[in-house]
Amino acid sequence: MYLGIDIGTSSLKAVLMDRDQRILGSRSAAMEVSRPHPGWSEQDPESWWTACVSVLDALAAAFPREMSAVKGIGLSGHMHGATLLGASDEVLRPCILWNDGRSAEEAREISGPSERITGNIAMPGFTAPKLLWVKRHEPDVFAKVKTVLLPKDYVRLRLTGDKASEMSDSAGTLWLATAERAWSDEMLALTDLDRSAMPELFEGSEATGTLRPELAQRWGMTGKVVLAGGGGDNAASGCGVGAVAPGTGFISIGTSGVVFVTADQYRANPEGAVHAFCHAVPRTWHQMGVALSAAGSLEWLSGVLDEDPGKLVAPLGDRPQGPSSVRFLPYLSGERTPHNDVAIRGAFAGLDAGTGRTDMTQAMLEGVAFSFRDCMDVLTMPLAEPRRLIAVGGGSRSRWWLRVIATVLDLPIAVPEDGDFGAAFGAARLGLCAAEGADPFEVCAPPAIREIVEPIPDLVEPYAAAHAAYRKLYPALKEATPR
Fold first, then answer.
1. Which residues are catalytic?
2. Is the pTM above the cut of 0.85?
3. To 10 degrees, what angle do helices 457-480 and 399-409 make?
4. Which of 445-463 are b and which e, b meaning 16 or more Cβ less than 10 Å from the residue's Cβ?
5. Each residue of 186-210: pLDDT tens digit?
6. Are 2-234 and 242-420+448-483 the same fold in CATH?
7. Which of the listed CATH numbers 3.30.420.40, 3.90.230.10, 1.10.10.10, 3.10.310.40 matches domain 2-234?
């Protein structure tokens, strides 16, 4: 038996998986985000640990025999979070999260070396600029920092006592030389840190340590339980959907949106605000475009109109009839790919007196699809062009949305059979690899596919024209946005 634990922004989820990769059970616990100032986003690391204990307690109560046979645990989590620990591993301040924009100035200062060494623009959401911000604005806290961990690796510390991380999550700190898969002394020095503050690095499928005996006893585990390196949430999702071979990829329609494509070589496109990271499996990298408000845009509109998201989408049916004349720019939290603009905000354009909620819903869904096209257009890995992308995330339940996305990308979208193929499942697969010494490229196979959503041929050109019009709106919106 194997466990996968995913520390999400709004909840922590654990899945229990057997040797045949069947999920026997899962549990989750909600968590809260604090926003003490506009553009800030923080979380108490203790809430991750409390949630972790809660869900594993629940699994142990529901599946005592299966939990007793657990041999490996894999970890996944939201990336870039700055978890600052003191000399006794005490938490010094709330973790600054991936969607926190306070360190925009500090990010600009280190972006040149970051592009050269890591292959990535320094964005305020990444970890390194946050440490510069803490140094300048909270010097008393910075002076006490002895270790910086990512969220999943703080949970690892509580589970095992080990300070360890792996390549995919560490690449998102901007302290990793991505091509070499090693800490960069130059990048660390730019934030007045050195390797003593960094955890030991492993591959995601490697064992990093073993579960503390008192915790194994608490959850009824009778043998040695190893912890896998695991992965950042998107790399772990790649393992979950089998996107580990060159040219494979997925599109995630969660709160944020991701277009993810795998390669066996390192390449970068910082000018396009592409994320060039290590994968969670050895000798493998990936490129990723990130749209900060995907299903989050639907959640926002649902709140504004005081209507259930499903009821907003239902009038659109299953098949798009063509693009709306209304445009929506989904920059509710700024945008990463391709603009790297933390200050930009969303907008509707083309509203008239006859515009109703269904028109606004269609424009919103199309705007997110156009943001995915923006991401796809700047991926430049030297890999075989992906023949399809696998859809994951809550937004993939809308057939109308998937057909629009497939048409806008002019690329088939594969929908897996019913099942959980997300980050927690990918983490469990990595836990299996670490415990059994199994080949991650064999373990992380693609799922059975229920349906292939094809582009609608007669709408490819109309949607391409609508995307071109959408692209013209960003420069005007940027000029009008207060900075």
1. 233
2. yes
3. 90
4. ebbeeeeebebbeebeeeb
5. 999 999 999 999 999 999 999 999 9
6. yes
7. 3.30.420.40
